[in-house]
Amino acid sequence: MRALIMLVAGGTLLAACGSKSDDVENHTAAAQYTPPTVTSRLDFGGEVERRFHRIDVNRDDRITPDELPDRWQSLVKRGDKDGDGALSAEEWSELMLSWFDRNDLNGDGTLTSEERETYRERRQAAPASQPDEAAR
């Protein structure tokens, strides 16, 4: 009888602890969790300036295509207002703040993680010929 009681108590204890696979699933879900974010336009503007100086590796106050990752090199053509083949701090700032404004879907001056995700989904769903039209 004592052995039976110990067996039942041990089984109950094991069941209460859960399985190792449950622990792995819980840890995996926690590791993939990204907390929601809110960024004001003012804070974003400060980060734009810091990023400009980090990217401008030769410190000539211009960002040229060779200072950008391959996937960002088209930004120079898009934002180069004076046609010198590079982005000045002002051109970079205008380009980045226009990105912020396109993502700020409700126009309240703050960008939430939900707005960024919605903007991203709209861009992906847009036809290839007009990738930014769905987001406007």
Automatic annotation (TrEMBL):
InterPro entries: EF-hand-dom_pair (IPR011992), EF_Hand_1_Ca_BS (IPR018247), EF_hand_dom (IPR002048). Residues 67-102 form the EF-hand domain. It comes from the Bacteria. Pfam families: EF-hand_5 (PF13202). Residues 102-136 are annotated as: Disordered. GO terms for molecular function: calcium ion binding. Residues 113-124 have a biased composition (Basic and acidic residues). Coiled coil: none annotated. This is EF hand.
